[in-house]
Amino acid sequence: MSENILVLGSTGATGLEFLRETLPLSDGPRLTLLVRSRSKLPQDLISQSASKVRIVEGGLSDEAKLDEAMEGVTTVISFLGAYPAFSYLVTRAKPTPIANSFPLIKRVMKKHGVKRLLALSTPSHSIPGEKYNFAQWFTTQIFPPYLMPQGDAEMKAIAEHSADDDFDYTIFRVPHLTNGPADLKVYAGFYGPDFKGSQSLSRASLARWAYQEVVNKQWIRQQPALGNY
Ligand SMILES: NC(=O)c1ccc[n+]([C@@H]2O[C@H](COP(=O)([O-])OP(=O)(O)OC[C@H]3O[C@@H](n4cnc5c(N)ncnc54)[C@H](OP(=O)(O)O)[C@@H]3O)[C@@H](O)[C@H]2O)c1
């Protein structure tokens, strides 16, 4: 069966790279985009690929829109993420509106028999047994929760909701995202002496890796950290 991927966060910088990576492929997937505003989508690319794209406008907590979007879907992938906000740096408040929608998303997935879930998260969500050198420890464990308390809490909570054995999940934990090219090599693994990834990752190479993971299913029920190398 050919893939029909529900993309959450397709209007964000990485989500847009996923569209640019997959829509031009002659044997590529069909995409369903659940968006808050379709005006943020690249109109040229969408109209060139009209037969492969379905757009549903709605929020993440709108059950009827989620239900409509999930129709015929084989895989859900989330590039959702929190925007940095200075107010949270000051107040230290940590609301998690995106993660709070995951129980509903999973309920609608179950209703439609969709088992495959891939979600973007953070390496500050660490996996038991991981070991860090000083630079990795500082950039993954200290910097995000201190400087972006709300965003960090949001990305960790997305991972916690997604690591659900009722699903074939893959949680990909990303470092600093850049606008570098798609052909940079991506290392996937766990922090420790063998970890080869750097602390940066181009969004375009991440999008390419994510689609390959949809196809190859190498990291089912795992939570690899990624980085260019
Ligand atoms: N180490 C780390 O922890 C780390 C490192 C790098 C990146 N990140 C996270 O990775 C995410 C992805 O990066 P990016 O640059 O591709 O993202 P981005 O351009 O910030 O895009 C964020 C996406 O999430 C959506 N979104 C945000 N809040 C939402 C809400 N309440 N309801 C529905 N959709 C919502 C946005 O939708 P709209 O277009 O409708 O606003 C957009 O599609 C970032 O947001 C960041 O939090 C974390």
UniProtKB/TrEMBL annotation:
One of the Pfam families matching this protein, by short name: NAD_binding_10
Domain NAD(P)-binding: residue ranges: 9-213
Gene3D superfamilies given in the database record: NAD(P)-binding Rossmann-like Domain (3.40.50.720)
Molecular function GO labels: biliverdin reductase [NAD(P)H] activity; riboflavin reductase (NADPH) activity
Protein family per UniProt: Belongs to the avfA family.
UniProt-listed PANTHER family: FLAVIN REDUCTASE (NADPH)
Protein name: NAD(P)-binding domain-containing protein
Organism of origin: Kwoniella heveanensis BCC8398
Lineage: Eukaryota, Fungi, Dikarya, Basidiomycota, Agaricomycotina
